[in-house]
């Protein structure tokens, strides 16, 4: 996904080399970024303005919501001014994420005071977590809809049109929106998301997602492959398969004659077209199998990049986090990646600094794990207690904020050291790059990514968006590779 019309950074934690405006956005990243989604103009009578927060599941869901509402006579607009319906697709992952949305809501509410006909709705993870509290506290919210209830939107909007408030935050065990063709709002026409599963059954003790998104369920494999085919037919060159834990994807046909695991799904999508790059996110260290790694190795068009969040480098802390693996297990998975896919395969992580009772030595273990893996990229956060989670109920949030922040900075610094080295080792080599568009730094430069998901910038020559080009990398900024087409 790329080319947001508007990107505001609300990062509660700085992350890795910030690849400035040419940044590739990452499929898993709950960065706190907000994107106003692009406009579709087909002359429908009402206008929907939708903003998405949080992870790419939310961005992908906004495309489903737009599709459902398109059928109901809504075009999307990228201007708040003139919109008839404003939807915020919200994130609860950390307190800061919720604060950001609340601030935005109050801005929108003052806009509503000047435009009394405007309808305002809250979707996504905060809707699920706070339910009807929104209607009580934020008197100007008309609509609250949880992640599994989007099919109910037309009926709920009717209710609101009739002068009532409307809420549906029921979670489902089956809903995968498999039959809904998303309106590709988040796309540059080259890269797209395909949501392959919903929910999460893992119950990591710090995490609110199992509560906001409900039980894990996998989408029909045929509908996923069909979506990839349709995207290829429409000229797309890259798909990212999305799920909180893609390695536990498991789908079986109703008569039981066919069952598909993640490695098999990955292979089916890779076979759709050799011209289609396939990415996926997120991999859980407890589930990623050698079969998945061998499948990646077999297909050139499966990108050599794995987001493998460790959260901590210390086994006691991992146990408290209920991650169900320990440090030796994680290290072994990294060695398996290196064995099967080689040194070039990029690995990224999420780390939480200052989790409940984490000692200074245990924090050092996180730093030493970063040294062990030499991550290409990292998304790092300090621990933020979430109401209702296992950790909030059972563990004391006892690391002072200044200590959390200092540890986080040490994690970031260590990670950047390795990321810069990982960029530097790519200099002098030729990379296959999928051109995603013009570099925002210069009209004359194009920007794309290599298989490892590193941003590559080069003079445009005759290349076009959507082309695969070979680029000899001659230097690095530490956050992007610079080169020329050969
Ligand atoms: N399913 C993914 C993670 C989704 S949430 C996985 O298991 O890897 C994205 C990231 O947010 C997590 O990996 C974690 O690092 C961070 N996160 C989740 N809850 C958090 C909390 N309470 N405080 C700080 N960071 C948190
Ligand atoms: Fe949250 Fe853990 Fe599920 Fe990831 S695997 S979404 S961190 S509960
Ligand atoms: Fe994603 Fe945030 Fe929900 S990270 S799953 S939008 S809590």
UniProtKB/TrEMBL annotation:
Domain of life: Bacteria
GO cellular component: cytosol
Principal subcellular localization: cytoplasm
Domain Radical SAM core span(s) in chain numbering: 186-422
Catalytic activity: N(6)-dimethylallyladenosine(37) in tRNA + (sulfur carrier)-SH + AH2 + 2 S-adenosyl-L-methionine = 2-methylsulfanyl-N(6)-dimethylallyladenosine(37) in tRNA + (sulfur carrier)-H + 5'-deoxyadenosine + L-methionine + A + S-adenosyl-L-homocysteine + 2 H(+)
Pfam families: Radical_SAM, TRAM, UPF0004
Binding residues annotated for [4Fe-4S] cluster 2, in chain numbering: 200, 204, 207
EC identifiers of the protein: 2.8.4.3
Compartment(s) of residence: Cytoplasm
Domain MTTase N-terminal: 46-162
Co-factor remark: Binds 2 [4Fe-4S] clusters. One cluster is coordinated with 3 cysteines and an exchangeable S-adenosyl-L-methionine.
Boundaries of every TRAM domain copy: 424-486
GO MF assignments: 4 iron, 4 sulfur cluster binding; metal ion binding; tRNA-2-methylthio-N(6)-dimethylallyladenosine(37) synthase activity
Coiled coil: none
UniProt subunit comment: Monomer.
Family indicated by similarity: Belongs to the methylthiotransferase family. MiaB subfamily.
Protein's job: Catalyzes the methylthiolation of N6-(dimethylallyl)adenosine (i(6)A), leading to the formation of 2-methylthio-N6-(dimethylallyl)adenosine (ms(2)i(6)A) at position 37 in tRNAs that read codons beginning with uridine.
The name this protein goes by in its record: tRNA-2-methylthio-N(6)-dimethylallyladenosine synthase
